[in-house]
Design a protein that fits this description.
- The protein is an alpha+beta fold and 274 residues long.
- The chain has two domains: 127 residues, Sandwich (Jelly Rolls), CATH 2.60.120.10; 101 residues, Homeodomain-like (Arc Repressor Mutant, subunit A, Orthogonal Bundle).
- Helix content is 41%, strand content 18%.
- It is built from eleven helices and eleven strands.
- Strands 6-3-8-2-1-10 form a six-stranded mixed sheet, covered by helices on one side. A three-stranded antiparallel sheet has the order 5-4-7, with no helix packed on it. It has a two-stranded parallel ribbon with strand order 9-11.
- Helix 5 packs across helix 6.
């Protein structure tokens, strides 16, 4: 991994199981349906966000997880911050959205752009905590969501980038639950079905490899897709772009990964449901 942003570009990404910060090309995506809570910030000019209830335009746009939307930017490069919703209490995420969309929105957008500028100039090494990420971009640490340990273990498996395909039956057996009870508890704890959650995490795994010269068919198998067709359809659904287009636009992207302890922890703190 390069120790800093690659020469001649300011394109970079910070990624951990809990968070993503991306500053790079938007491309020309079709409708997308990200599984993360998404904050888009314009580097110059404005953004236009289109969803079911209409179009909004401004320097920042916020969209809830799994909500279909499309995005157009006045400038080719944008900032996209993603929070995995199962890692933050619902009330804390709602409070953050209120800040972003309220009177503090302009200041929040300026803070995120300023944090990016500092990263672009100074670069960084691999290794960051979720608390550090939140403080850099939001000015505060977001509370961690407490999750039933059985569901936290299942999510840990799904967050494993290099792991084997994960099934509901396997997770249910590991949790000593019937499959129907496990699926019910999983949706109760995460707010989304196991199938939808797994589909998003598979698509999210792609982000770890987008600046590499890699065979896409082999990558599809490595991150859990049964074949290239399913891989391509899933990536286009979540990101609005074909896999090849994403890789072509990410050749100069510097990627910095979170602490190994975060990856091992799988992005969740087991405990009482929060």
């Amino acid at each position: 991994m390069d120790d800093g942003v690659r020469p001649g570009t300011g394109h970079l990404m910070l990624i951990s199981p809990e968070r993503v910060f991306y500053a790079g090309l938007l491309g020309r995506p079709r409708q997308r349906t990200c599984g993360g809570f998404s904050i888009y910030v314009a580097l110059h000019g404005d953004l236009s966000l289109t969803q079911a209830h209409g179009v909004t335009r401004g320097e920042m746009a916020v969209i809830s997880p799994y909500v279909p939307h499309s995005l157009v930017s006045d400038y080719p490069t944008i900032i996209h911050v993603m929070i995995e919703p199962e890692t933050v209490p619902v009330a804390a995420l709602a409070a953050l959205e209120e800040r972003l969309c309220g009177l503090a929105g302009a200041a929040m957008a300026a803070r995120i752009r300023g944090a990016y500028e500092a990263l672009r100039i100074a670069g960084r090494r691999d290794g960051f905590t979720t608390s550090e990420f939140d403080t850099i971009f939001f000015g505060e640490h977001l509370d961690a969501r407490r999750t039933d340990p059985r569901i936290a273990r299942a999510i840990g498996q799904l967050n494993n980038v290099t792991g084997a395909a994960v099934t509901a039956a396997d997770c249910a057996a590991a949790a000593h639950l019937s499959q129907s009870r496990f699926l019910h508890l999983f949706k109760e704890q995460t707010g989304v079905s196991f199938r939808a959650f797994r589909a998003w995490k598979r698509a999210r795994h792609l982000l770890h490899f987008v600046n590499e010269d890699i065979n896409l068919a082999h990558l599809a198998q490595d991150i859990g897709y049964p074949d290239s067709t399913h891989f391509s359809h899933s990536i286009r659904r979540f990101y609005g772009l074909k896999p090849r287009a994403i890789f072509l636009g990410s050749r100069d992207l510097a990627i910095y990964r979170g602490d190994a302890s975060i990856a091992a922890e799988a992005g969740l703190r087991p405990g009482r449901p929060g």
